[in-house]
UniProtKB/TrEMBL annotation:
It is found in: Cell outer membrane. It comes from Zobellia uliginosa. Residues 36-220 form the SusD-like N-terminal domain. Belongs to the SusD family. Pfam families: SusD-like_3 (PF14322), SusD_RagB (PF07980). Keywords: Cell outer membrane, Membrane, Signal. This is Starch-binding associating with outer membrane. The lineage of its organism: Bacteria, Pseudomonadati, Bacteroidota, Flavobacteriia, Flavobacteriales.
Length: 601
């Protein structure tokens, strides 16, 4: 088969859908029936494609980015995907966000169980090697789905065989630890069968390196540091060792797709499956700027001296984007930078900006990113042109920043001249990267108390790549103090994996969610950083990476003349219940309370 692109196959047997009222989607209409199927290798491939399809849970955006917008990374203007209930403390057992993840991932589990239960019927009609690999891929995918279900909901019903409603035996919630042990065993079995990496023609399929990377992640999340370390080492020492892509910014564009750093991804193709992330992340020059980074994220990036901004005396609050970790500008489109063919301006007087071609200013254009109220006429001081602002565009970025990572800049720019819509982007989304393996390894050894030179090598490899082609030497880590390294690895994960879907699980397992999510999420000053600079204001950053803006000028979003930080959303996190999402009420009702609710809901 060609690389997995979630093709809806016209075989009449796969109708990719879900059955919301069924317990755990036990009669998924997208699953073929064992009475008429699973007789040939080709049919096994069709069923396997149906399992891969469930990775592509898109509730307006791919699921990793949806998860990151339930964290301190970002602000969701317009409640795309329903994340506001999670950030403001209003999550309930009937929310679409809660039910969406549950239904989608359990549909994937059921499809995997269906294949694994019935595939022996095609054993004699299949190539033995491919038959075993199909089984291994199904085991990998089922483990992937359960890893997210257990991290989001805790103890969940656990099934490894297909079950019809006629034969249904209602299953209560299984302890998370038992599920984790089982899926790790499945992943180890899969890793022993799958090739170390997949060829380019099979991109998007599971591999042994992907399986071991997932084991490392799951083990780290569950504080099995010895296993997290050993699984990461298997990737680092594999026959086809991955490598870090040399250009961090380009990694998240088409140039990085298919690189050896990417161990597992979501691939898309126009006409079969696309996503709208770029439209929702992009600026008004082609996008809707609904999913935007917070000031807290911007302030998390170190200076080029390798220090948090509150510890570096050379940091200039009036010029906050200068001399910063290059991943800041690679990940986030900043004010006065060029992105999607225009100079990004947020100042309320910047009623016009420049369109840029090949690095040259070619045309002054109306700037829909300005913060002006509707109907205000402003003369562009550059050429005297009078523009009348439109109220629909006031505070369009809301935070002053845009995600560059995974935003399809060529399509965003092309859409301005009638090209394809960014709502149908083919931008590849990464699910497992080699950088994560290196940082998993380092953190496992830090937490396990076995700190040595290999820990520093792993962290410094990731940091050095961030500075490649920057013209600035990277600030190497040399300390072997456990407490200091713990702070460093947590900062490193936050900036390395921004907008990749890992932050929610990090802040929960570190037990800092109750701190970083009990705050007001801020955007940058509407009129630049002049007032902040005059006040010489720098926030305080504690050992957990919590950024304290006490004393900072801030106020709710207003329009013209506001020089303060923008207060975007008041966040609430109750440690008594919010470390887990609620079990969907439909599941509890369908099982007549055999499946119980999480505390507090």
């Amino acid at each position: 088969m060609k690389n997995i692109k979630y093709i809806i196959l016209s075989v009449g047997l796969l109708i990719f859908g879900s059955c919301e009222d069924n317990v755990l989607n036990l009669e998924d209409p997208g699953s073929p029936t064992d009475a008429t199927f699973f007789r040939t290798e080709a049919q096994l491939e069709v069923a396997l494609t149906g399992i891969y399809e469930q990775l592509n849970y898109v509730n307006a955006v791919p699921f990793p980015q949806l998860l990151d917008h339930t964290t301190d990374y970002a602000f969701n203007r317009g409640n795309v995907g329903g994340t506001i209930a999670a950030t403001t403390g209003g999550l309930t057992s009937t929310e679409g966000l809660v039910n969406g993840f549950w239904n989608n991932f359990y549909t994937g589990v059921q499809r995997a169980n269906n294949l694994l239960t019935n595939m022996d019927k095609a054993a004699d009609a299949s190539d033995p090697s491919r038959f075993e690999q199909i089984k291994a891929e199904a085991l990998f995918l089922r483990s992937f789905f359960y890893s997210y279900l257990t991290e989001l909901y805790g103890d969940v019903p656990f099934r490894t065989e297909v079950t019809s409603l006629e034969e249904l035996e209602i299953v209560a919630r299984t302890p998370k630890s038992e599920i984790v042990a089982s899926i790790i065993s499945d992943l180890q079995e899969a890793a022993a069968i799958l090739p170390p990496t997949q060829p380019a023609t099979e991109r998007g399929r599971a591999s042994a390196n992907a399986a071991n990377a997932l084991i490392s992640r799951i083990a780290l999340y569950n504080e099995d540091y010895e296993l997290a370390e050993s699984a990461a080492l298997k990737v680092m020492n594999s026959a086809e060792t991955p490598s870090l892509y040399p250009d961090y910014e380009a990694l998240f564009t088409d140039a990085g797709v298919g690189s050896s750093e990417v161990l597992f991804d979501l691939s898309y193709i126009n006409g079969t499956k696309t996503h709208g992330l770029s439209q929702r992340q992009g600026s008004r020059f082609g996008g809707w700027c609904q999913l935007v980074p917070a000031q807290q994220t911007v302030d998390s990036y170190e200076t080029i001296n390798g220090l948090p901004i509150d510890e570096d005396p050379e940091y200039d609050p009036a010029n906050p984007f200068e001399n910063r970790d290059p991943r800041l500008a690679a990940t986030i489109a900043l004010p006065n930078s060029v992105w999607t063919g225009h100079i990004i301006q947020q100042h309320s007087d910047s009623i016009a900006t420049w369109r840029i071609e090949d690095g040259v200013k070619v045309e002054r254009v109306f700037n829909p990113n300005s913060a002006n109220p509707a109907g205000r006429a402003i003369v562009d001081p550059y050429d005297g042109t009078e523009y009348v602002t439109g109220g629909a565009n006031r505070f369009t970025a809301f935070s002053g920043y845009f995600w560059k990572k995974f935003s399809d800049a060529p399509r965003l720019l092309g859409s301005l001249s009638g090209g394809p819509s960014p709502l149908q982007s083919e931008q590849t989304i990464y699910l497992l990267r080699y950088a994560e393996v290196l940082l998993n390894y380092a953190e496992a050894k830090i937490e396990g108390g076995s700190i040595d030179g290999s820990v520093l090598n792993a962290i410094n490899a990731v940091r050095e790549r961030a500075y490649t082609n920057s013209g600035v030497p990277f600030p190497a880590i040399s300390t072997t103090d456990q407490a200091e390294l713990r702070k460093i690895i947590r900062r490193e994960r936050k900036v390395e994996f921004a907008d990749e879907g890992l932050r929610l699980f990090d802040i929960k397992r570190w037990r800092i969610a109750e701190k970083v999510l009990n705050t007001t999420v801020l955007g940058g000053p509407a009129n630049g950083f002049s007032k902040i600079g005059d006040l010489d204001f720098v926030p305080n950053i504690d050992d957990d990476g919590y950024i304290d803006y006490t004393g900072a000028p801030s106020q709710p979003r207003v329009e013209l003349g506001n020089l303060d930080y923008r207060e975007l959303e008041e966040r609430t996190f109750d440690p008594g219940k919010h470390y887990l999402w609620p079990i969907p009420q439909a599941e509890i009702d369908a099982t007549e309370n055999v499946v119980t609710q999480n505390p507090g809901y």
